[in-house]
Amino acid sequence: MAIRPCATRVKFIDAPLVLWITAILFCLSAMACGGGGSADDGGGSDNGGASQITTTSFTGGETNPVCTATASGQEVQAPQWVRNIRGQTGWYASPFVVDLDGNGSKEIVAAYYTLYVYDAQGNLLDSKAGNGGRIYAPHVVMHRTDGIMEIACGQRHELYVYEWRNGQLQLKSGWPADTTTAGESPEIRGLAAADLDGNGSIELIATTTQTQSAANGGAQVFVFDSSGSLYQPAGTGFQAWPRYNNRIGQGGDADRNGAGHNGYGCYGLNVGTGNIDDDPELEIIVTYDNHEIQAFNHDGEAIDASPYFTNPQNAYFGMPMTWGQFIRWADLDVEEDFYHLHLANFWPHPRRQEWLQWTASPPNVVDMDGDGRNEVVGIPNIEMNEPYVTQAYGVMVLEGAYGDGSHSAMRKPGWEILPRGGWPVQVDGWYPPRGVPAPLTIDIQGDDLPEIVVSLNDGCMHAFDATGLHLWRYNYTHQKAIMYASEATAADLNQDGSPEIIFTTYGDPDQSDCGRLIILSADGTMLYDLLLPNPGHNGNGNGAPSAPTIADLDGDGDLEILVQTFDHGMDIFTVPGSAENCLLWTTARGGPLRNGRPSGL
Q: What are the distances in angstroms from CA 565 to CA 86, 125, 509?
């Protein structure tokens, strides 16, 4: 492909050499999805510090059925706008559709700064404001064994659980739970639910923005049982949660493997659950803003990485490390030289090598090769230089801790080199917030292996197969400098058994046409790219940051798509000719439990 001449003005830095190097690198980035950087990292223009995105889309892969086809020969029909439900500022809490009272009619559970329940026609049934804080992370919907539905949401430092009784939200006894530690009350930015120990009761896992050190009592990861108390597995002789703690000895983090643990800020849906070892209990995967990804057993103890990795620090030289006791580097050779060979006088640094950051990186647990053993998929941002500048977002696949643990936290064969996106979209300041690269991990090609579909914050939605092959990418920017995408969802919209990929976009709060609903076929072919109607204005952004939700809301057999926005509440579309035959990943984080896997009630 010919390189497009670079017409973007680049701000003068200090020296002509730096200027020309920056300009050349930016021109080369136009070959792939990518946006401009801020003035601070040398990629700025006069458009709010962001440069124009120039790229092309491409398609690839297969569109074989993955579900039973219930019709054939019909194309996916255009979504038809049904109504808007006015609302507050929406963040990443995708709405959920569920029959709360078992009467055969479905309700909408929507979370903004208040938790709302609407009927299928958009009439308000009830609401609860909690402490008035924003509900950043997707709310969880749980079905108890006694038939009562529960809804959990995080607001500021508190986790609320409501029961749906007699057509009303009622705060459950024992809640809200508090995540305050070290005298600071952080914000809950990640929430997931799972039956960790298989006893039939759901636990809630919350991750927070706590930045106080573990030594000072700061903890980022909390697990609560159904009563609102900290989860304490039967027979555990130490306090399991929260993590990290400042204790020593059994169950302590202060002296684990000598060096101990320390976390810092989980800023964007940084939690997933699944089984990554041989025991029946589920593990909890958490990503942090201090370059680390950790795997916890359900009792709170971190899992050791492979003996291949040992500590390079003089004080703890050669000692084992847990998943979260070492920084991951983009280059496999750097990790080998530093953590395995311990080469003399070799100490990597982001001035010279790219390291991985997990600021807002939702992890998924998925069996990538069908061998019955799960891997962990994460989307770190790849940083370099001082101050740190994100060069791209990458896709990392790590092996689980099965057998003797010799492969624990190792890169899965075939994924040694991280697939990566283009130069990322950057903004000056905080708004709109950068996209949260939450991956969709399901089979969309009909090969019985999962694909990874994710926006890499470079202006494109990407798809990779189970071996890391880049199948397709779709540029959703419409030539705008600042555009991000939601998490993708997947459902069959024309009953042919092959799923469509559905997502939304958002961008500059001072523009009015950044919000779009986009539908792609499984091979990345664009089917519909629709502007959301009647936008408003919101200083946080324009468009829809949370994943769209797909369900048959009104019971007529056709699917609806629910789109929650920053600026004008919720839009509801219907797709004529669709059905519930193939609902694969229908809302944020895969389902009502929001744990990075397909989940149901």
A: 10, 21, 12
